[in-house]
Every structure is written in C-alpha cells, then in structure tokens.
Design brief:
Number of strands: 21
Strand order of the largest sheet: 12-11-8-13-16-17-19-20
Shape: globular
C-alpha cells in the first residue's frame, strides 16, 4: 500500500531521532514519496541534510525561515501538505509534542501542520520510561486516541538513560507495517456516502439527579465514526452521555434518552446511506419522572418500587423502513450469543449484526480492545480475535462498504 503514497514523517527531539534515516530509506524503497518535517530540537540529533538526501525533498524545520530564503508559498505550506499527504507518522513522538498535539497547540511548523491534516495521523511515542509512564503523558495519549490518532505502543527494553522499561521506538519494520495496514484501511471507499453511527449509553431519568443507564463507554461507536471519516464518509455521530472527544471531521449530535436518540436517528436517516447502531440503548425507562429529587426519608419501608416502561426499539423501527439502506446492529450477549444475535438479525431486518460478550477477556466495557463476531443474514459468521476497537471498526466497515457498493451498482 505504500507505493505512490504521500507520507509525512515528523521527527521530534528524542535520542531515537537518528532512526528516522532508516525510516525514510524504507519508505522510499517501498515506492512512497516522503516529506520530512523536523522540530528544532530534532536537529540536535539528526541533520536536515541527511534526511533531505535520503528523501530527495527539502526538509522543513522552520515555520518562518529567513526572508531571503523563503519561497512565496511558504506561508501556506502547512495547508498544502495537509491536503497532499495520505498519512502522517511522527516518530519519535516526544512527551512534549504529544502534549502539544493533545491540546491543539501550534507553535512550530510540525504542530501547525498536524492541525491542518486531512489524513490519518500515527504517533510513535519514544522517551525514557518514567516520562512515558507519567500520568500526564498517559492522559495525553488517551486524549489523542479519542481524537482519532493512531498511537503505536513503544517497545520495552534498555533505554539511553540505562534504565529499562517501555519507551523504546519500535523496530523500523513494525512502523512500516503499521503504516501499510493503516493505508490499506484509509482508502476512500466510503467517499460520497452518508454514514450515521450511534454510540454510548442512554440515561433514562428517575428524578432530576438519578437515572437508569448502563456501563457503555461509547468507545466502539467513536472508533467506528473515526474510521468511517478517515475512509471518506460524511459521518454523523449520535452519542449518548460520554466523556469522549469528537473525532476529526465528524459531525456530532448529543442526546440523553432513548427517545431523544430515536428522534435524532429518524431525522438523520432520511439522508443516510448506512446506519451503524453501536449505542447501548436502555431497554426500559421509568414510567414516571419525579419533578424533584426523591428523598430517602419520604419513602415508606425499606424498599422503593420503580415502575418501568419499554423504550422504543429504534433498530426494529428503522429496519422496517430502511429500503435500500444498510443497517448494522450490535448484540451484547452474556449467554447463547450466536442464537440470540441471529434472532435479532432476522427480527429487526438488519444487514449485519455484531456480537460481543463483555465478560470475554479483551471485550469489557471501557476498554480499548474488543472481541466480536460479524454475522450476516445468510448465517455466515466471522469471529475476530482480540484487537483494537479501531481495527474492529475497520473490519465492520469493510463489510459495510461491500454492501453499499453492491446496492449502488443495482
């Protein structure tokens, strides 16, 4: 997938910067065009001349080079490269640069370019073990993942400081393979399609401060929205209450209850090509919502009865009216998974259903990985091993893209 691709390689000021020369060489050997961008600190570890010679392109360091050397178009170079690139890799990515990207700081050419990107961005953190494990760094990495960046975990081993632990830049082969895989899923096969993704839980109020809900984190739905946008789709993300940041190039609608989600889905579905219902919609809601907070001392006896009513079945309603559109559902099951999933698939007239069990290792609520089985109406099922939710999202979107292509050809 690297042949004829445009790769931006960002290099920041860590000892592993010297390995960037091997990276450039491997990308060029694979047939890619490589534009290298260095931070000022990175030039202390590797010279622009070395990387310019290997890439056969000018290496960019300064946002504003001396006027006498500045091309007329330099002030828009970050915009031009943001549209030129198929993918950007920052390796090594220091703690400082991770923090700046996570907060949207643009104080040099590299960080300004990141904000202008329209392509996938891949970050390969490399630093000393204590810096990597510092809570601030880990929070920034988590934020970056939520924003849709792909983060490659560092290798463990002996570090430049003499300490040992996680923080080493991965082998060059691993970095090249990762970019190859990402580009394989970054082809624009969803361009021109409108995709709706739902995510997170719904909260059904009992009173002004309490609700009936579930433990969904929304991460699977957000990964689907991010992956669909990277593949060229026009993506609308309808999310219940979660603490996740909106992925790049995704339009977000926030809802709270199942009723609000139903209204949003039905309104958006009129112009959609596909709906992926990853939200964990509450099956029941309190029949009566108290106007004031329910006081313990006002309740008689040692228990309180809460009457529940059924929530609308959004998937069933959509499935009955979908016509030529693709509808994908999720089945979270703790027993008789395949049997229950296939029943839901048929009853709700779905095109695919994604089965998972939160008790399975790697599939728990709130995690960054998932273990799923993709089931089609023909009975064909494909069980995936534990993988990142972003990778699971792309496996699902592969199927959605095929279905859309088949229907658009008829």
């Amino acid at each position: 997938m690297l042949r004829n691709k445009h790769i931006l390689l960002g290099v920041t000021g860590g000892i592993a910067a010297y390995k960037s020369a091997w990276l450039v060489r491997e990308f060029v050997k694979a047939g890619a065009e490589v534009q290298v961008v260095l931070t000022r600190s990175a030039t202390e570890f590797v010279t622009p001349l070395t990387l310019s010679t290997l890439s056969q392109r000018e290496v960019i360091v300064e946002m504003f080079p001396p006027s006498k050397d500045r091309p007329a178009d330099r002030w828009t170079k970050h915009i031009d490269l943001g549209m030129w690139a198929d993918v950007m890799l920052i390796a090594p990515a220091t703690a400082n640069v991770l923090a700046k990207i996570a907060q949207g700081i643009a104080d040099d050419f590299l960080t300004t370019l990141v904000l202008a990107l329209r392509c996938p961005i891949v970050l390969s953190p490399a630093m000393d073990v204590d810096m990597y494990l510092n809570e601030a760094t880990q929070q920034n990495i988590s934020t970056l993942k939520q924003l849709g960046c792909r983060v490659i975990d560092p290798d463990s081993g002996e570090l430049a400081s003499g300490l040992s632990g996680p923080g080493r830049l991965p082998d060059i082969d691993r970095l090249v393979r990762t970019l190859d895989q990402i580009l394989d899923h970054a082809h624009q096969d969803l361009k021109g399609t409108n995709i709706i993704v739902t995510a997170g839980p719904t909260h059904e109020p009992i009173d002004p401060v309490r609700y009936v809900g579930n433990s969904s984190s929304g991460k699977m739905g957000f990964a689907l929205a991010n992956a669909a946008a990277l593949r060229g789709g026009t993506v609308t993300l309808i999310s219940g209450p979660v603490s996740l940041r909106t992925p790049r190039n995704v339009r977000r609608i926030d809802v709270r209850t199942a009723s609000e989600m139903q209204k949003a889905v039905e309104l958006e579905f009129a112009n959609a090509d596909a709906l992926i219902m990853a939200a964990a919609v509450a099956d029941y809601a309190p029949a009566q919502v108290a106007e004031q907070k329910l006081k313990r001392e006002n309740q008689k006896g040692e228990s309180m009865n809460l009457e529940l009513r059924k929530n609308p079945d959004i998937l069933r309603t959509i499935g009955q009216t979908k016509k030529n559109r693709v509808v994908v559902g999720f089945a979270l099951e703790t027993e008789r998974g395949p049997e229950n999933a296939k029943r839901k698939l048929a009853e709700k007239n779905l095109d695919l259903i994604i089965l998972n069990n939160p008790r399975e290792e790697g599939a728990a609520f709130g995690g960054d990985t998932n273990v799923v089985t993709i089931i089609s109406p023909t009975g064909e099922s494909r069980s995936l091993p534990k993988m990142s939710k972003f990778d699971v999202a792309n496996e699902i979107l592969d199927q959605v893209a095929r279905l859309l292509k088949a229907r658009m050809s008829h």
